[in-house]
Amino acid sequence: MPFPQTEIPGRLQAELAARGIRMTEQRRAILKVIETAKKHLAAGQILRKAQRLNAAVDRSTVYRTLELLKRHRMVDELDLMHMDGDGHYYERKLARDHIHMACLRCGKITEFMSEIFDSLKQQLERDCRFSIVVARLEVGGYCSECRH
Amino acid sequence: MPFPQTEIPGRLQAELAARGIRMTEQRRAILKVIETAKKHLAAGQILRKAQRLNAAVDRSTVYRTLELLKRHRMVDELDLMHMDGDGHYYERKLARDHIHMACLRCGKITEFMSEIFDSLKQQLERDCRFSIVVARLEVGGYCSECRH
DNA sequence: ATTCTAGTTGCGAATCAGTCGCAACTTCAG
DNA sequence: CTGAAGTTGCGACTGATTCGCAACTAGAAT
Ligand SMILES: [Mn+2]
Ligand SMILES: [Mn+2]
Ligand SMILES: [Zn+2]
Ligand SMILES: [Zn+2]
């Protein structure tokens, strides 16, 4: 079962710099939160964690920064089947896409990388002549411990 | 390029009846809208269309009915990469799942069925011992006419 | 180091989809 | 035809996200 690996810390900041984007204390805090996250975070969670690093960080800044990171393809936005309220989740975009499976009973999120998934994306590019920017496969169901 | 086919009209109503669920004028209107939809509809659009069939239909009733239909796996809820504001889209769930590709330039939604997609789901069930209830593959990018 | 400006921020108000409680109404089994 | 359970409309409410704007930097140019 291939799992996605974690990233080199400080990478996000470097990537933004490389693209000539201004660095601020607020952004540094938000980027750090996203990079060191152990799980998928909702905007509100990112805000609270970022404020622990820099109390000045404001809600709007979090949303604006997430927008920036999405635009630059540095984070992915996820639904995770709305495991909790509305609102989306965010995670650092890694080199290789992965699949998210959300257990409808215990809420656990399982991540999975698959060559079949990669081929599927190739098929879409080829057969549909569609140029993929972002591909999101989200599955709801029951994890190994919860299905009976 | 295999495309998803449309459904027999009146089918949704029959299916709900078969499950012993009460039929009301409001539900009839909403079901008809969903069944005859030519594209993926947001809740607000479903409301407006249903009100044309029965002026009494209320917003809450639309949401409650969508919830009912989701619970019974008779509609699928989609994101379509937030092509327009927040809010989700709904469509009649057909026998076989399909993939949605949203063009980030012209907004066109392309639907596609794939055996590779079917195998991928099988892989998840097998390799991750995950029991799939709903699987959503949504792709954002550029359609054949918009990519340059 | 100082200056300057475009880019960024905090704030508070606004938006807007979706939810909820409740009393009135309807469905449909008996 | 009746009654209980299920459904509805309404209006108030929530909670995530957005926005306008004046004050505030970052960092390029001097
Ligand atoms: Mn969503
Ligand atoms: Mn579809
Ligand atoms: Zn589980
Ligand atoms: Zn297009």
Note the overall shape of chain A: globular
Bound compounds, each kind once, are:
manganese (II) ion, zinc ion
Q: What name goes with the CATH superfamily of the largest domain in chain A?
A: Winged helix-like DNA-binding domain superfamily/Winged helix DNA-binding domain
Distance separating the two termini of chain A: 21 Å
**Mean of the pLDDT scores of chain A?**
93
- How does CATH name the architecture of the largest domain in chain A? Orthogonal Bundle
- Alpha-beta classification of chain A: alpha+beta
User: How much of the sequence of chain A is in beta strands?
Assistant: 15-25%
Structure description:
- The structure is a homodimer of 148-residue chains.
- With 148 residues, chain A is α+β, with helices and mostly antiparallel strands.
- A 3-stranded antiparallel β-sheet of chain A has the order 1-3-2. In chain A, strands 5-4-6 form a 3-stranded mixed β-sheet, covered by helices on one side.
- Chain A is globular.
- Helices cover 39% and strands 21% of the residues of chain A.
- Chain A has 2 domains: 1-94, Winged helix-like DNA-binding domain superfamily/Winged helix DNA-binding domain (Arc Repressor Mutant, subunit A); 96-148, Dna Ligase, domain 1, CATH 3.30.1490.190.
- In chain A, helix 2 packs across helix 3.
- At the A-B interface, strand 4, helix 5 and strand 6 of A face strand 4, helix 5 and strand 6 of B.
- The structure holds manganese (II) ion (MN) (2 copies) and zinc ion (2 copies).
- One zinc ion (ZN) binds at residues 103, 105-106, 108, 142-143, 145-146 of chain A.
- One zinc ion (ZN) binds next to loops of chain A.
- The structure holds a DNA duplex (30 and 30 nucleotides).
